[in-house]
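Build the 3D complex.
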Amino acid sequence: MTNAAIIQFNNVTKQYDNDPPVLDDVSFEIERGKFYTLLGPSGCGKTTILRLIAGFIEPTNGEIYFNEKKINAIPANKRQVNTVFQDYALFPHLNVFENVAFGLRIKKMKNAEIERKVKEALSFVNLKGYENREIREMSGGQRQRVAIARAIVNEPEVILLDEPLSALDLKLRTEMQYELRELQRRLGITFIFVTHDQEEALAMSDEIFVIDKGKIQQSGTPTDIYDEPINRFVADFIGESNIVDGKMLKDFRVEFVGREFECVDKGFNVNEAVEIIIRPEDLEITTLERGKLQVRVDSQLFRGVHYEISCYDKDGNEWLVHSTKKAAVGSKIGLYFDPEAIHVMRHGETEEEFDRRLETYADVDRHGE
Ligand SMILES: Nc1ncnc2c1ncn2[C@@H]1O[C@H](COP(=O)(O)OP(=O)(O)OP(=O)(O)O)[C@@H](O)[C@H]1O
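Done.
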């Protein structure tokens, strides 16, 4: 275990009865003081990971460590972890102050100490002066902050947040994303945040675990995962992608849509079948002659900062383009892209194999930086 790791999962499986495992041999480390996001579709196992960390359930197999101590069977109330739930789980009959004070009263802390800590927690979440308000008099965003104050007042080492923003409207949600991120930085506590919203994950996290079917598909920083998705699932789940089948001819040469292109990928077998991703923002609209692909514009939507343009090549592959330029629906255009814009994915590659392959690219200028 690295020095900074606060939580470690070693080959953790969680299975109910004879159903397929909801978590399947999962291993990872959580470092102290960072903002982590568990991202994946409904039912992939995100909440199960949180509940295992919180101590609400026990793993079927494997070990969970907290500060290097095995905690598989340690009860929830003995763990240095607090959870902020999706529905906030506030007490409707208690005012704001008493909601936040609740855990401290259970610990039989002195009144003066409680007063000081609750006020400090409320001012941390910008709710100074709201002590005597009833919960029903608070807006969704304010309730969210009360729930967070109630978690931080206990000074846990880790705060778990289970889709805490999903009940809020888009504008408030964006505001709370900034607030939560800022709060985590100020507190320096490890946050583990669950969402199925990829934009939220990209905006907030130091590290993202992309989960599907009870397995971590890929872990890394938002830019790592966006720039180098390991497989089709991750590429599709994070941002929008054009994905086509292709063939690696040799190092730095790839074939797709029946044509050969220069790329920056290497380390594949000769004629290995692969998948190719090109992000919509990496495709540039140009003349038919300059274009590396020739396509017909099928439809166009204005998205505020860019146009989302759907095009088809002669083989019927769709190419999605994000462009600040308009294109005439029905017209034939060229699409240009740099060799760095082509991402080659190997079928069935594990995260370890993938990382090892990318390490050998150190000498390749992947993003033109
Ligand atoms: N007590 C249980 N008994 C049987 N199956 C369960 C139990 N708890 C959860 N599951 C199953 O485990 C799987 C993963 O559930 P989990 O709540 O971790 O998903 P999730 O990724 O958090 O989904 P969502 O985004 O919908 O909350 C689901 O298929 C769920 O039905």
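The chain has a mean pLDDT of 92.
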